[in-house]
Amino acid sequence: MTLTVPGHELLYSGKVRGLYVPSDPRTGERDDTRLLLVASDRISAYDHVLRTPVPDKGAILTRMSLWWFDQLADLVPHHVVSTDVPDEVRGRAVYVRRLTMLPVECVARAYLTGGGLAEYAATGTVSGVRLPEGLVDGSRLPEPVFTPSTKAPQGEHDQPISLDRVRDLVGPALAERVRDLTVAILARGDEIASGRGILIADTKVEFGVDPADLPPPGPDGRTDWRAVDPDRAEVRLADEVLTPDSSRFWRARDWEPGRPQTSYDKQVLRDWLTSPASGWDRASDTPPPALPPDVVDLTRSRYVEAYEALTGQTFHPTA
Asked: Residue 61's closest CA among 195, 247, 293, 193?
């Protein structure tokens, strides 16, 4: 169901977020310099939006991102303009700058797991980066590694790519800027979180640039990212950052390489979906089943626990 926000036009409805263009209340004209970013309680897994929402998820992720933007402010500017939003979406929405987003998913890993582990087992590398021998599921890497991927259309799978491919897409200077920023964000995040009982195994971040700082689009309407100088066009952190939806969060006291870790993120429901209890075949074309109440409750409680551990604040649902 699409949410209607008075005085705003729906621009885009994604897996779990909606983007709205605000109008000037005096003139009714569109304000094309900013957007209203609304986080829903929908949750996705394995490129499917699940039919069962997780209560308060949108509010938890919005507040967590705002907290992290403050922690990272000296590393990278962000896109948030204001948290003074309409009552219909209060607590789970922010006004943000309207940016042109880079055509790359920027991922960094501090620990080996998931798709990175599978690639390492087959080749000894992750996204073309050679790793030490003898690593297992949950091993801490010597230093965070940049492991970007394609930005696939909704319903399709992102594919791992090398740094060289990122250079082809956006030019060497911009590729190295977003690599350095992505690794720095994960390193700072893991340093802060580990002191509060959480390990951040990996994370995905997105970056954008103010359209006014970009060259005119080509005949096909696309941005020539290779022509962008990151020293002149400011790269901003956008969307969300270091949340259980965009990162793997592990309970630090339970960390033990060589086995699955206690997770604060969507792994709770991923595990159920791939278990015999769900009856779902991930390789099939059928959508996942509805989540049972105990899986929903456990997922929500893990999100709340992570928020409270990181921020030191008690989570109170928005009335």
From this structure: 247
Better-predicted residue by pLDDT, 158 or 192: 192
SS3 121: helix
Does residue 212 have a pLDDT over 80? yes
pTM: 0.93
Give the count of beta carbons closer than 10 Å to the beta carbon of residue 35. Answer: 23
Asked whether residue 319 carries a pLDDT value surpassing 60, the answer given is: no
Residues 6+ apart with CB under 8 A from 113: 137, 138, 201, 202, 248, 261
Alpha-helical runs (H) found in the chain: 57-71, 114-123, 163-170, 172-194, 267-273, 293-311
Distance of alpha carbon 17 from alpha carbon 24, whole angstroms: 23
Contacts of 235 (CB under 8 A, 6+ apart): 76, 102, 174, 177, 178, 181, 207, 208, 209
User: Strand 80-82 to strand 93-97: parallel, antiparallel, or no bridges (unpaired)?
Assistant: antiparallel
Sort 78 into a burial class: Cβ within 10 Å, 0-12 / 13-18 / 19+: buried
- How many Cβ atoms are within 10 Å of 192's Cβ, its own excluded? 16
Task: Map out the domains of the chain with their CATH numbers.
Answer: 101-251 (3.30.470.20)
Task: Choose between 219 and 77: higher pLDDT.
Answer: 77
Using CA atoms, how far apart are residues 307 and 313, in angstroms rounded to an integer?
8
pLDDT of residue 122: 94
The DSSP call for residue 102 is: P
158 pLDDT above the threshold of 80: no
Average pLDDT over residues 276-284: 93
Is residue 252 within 8 Å of residue 16, measured between CB atoms? no
Mean local confidence (pLDDT), 138-167: 87
Please check the confidence at residue 26 and state whether its pLDDT lies above 90: no
Nearest-angstrom CA–CA distance, 24 and 28: 5
CA distance 104 to 302: 29
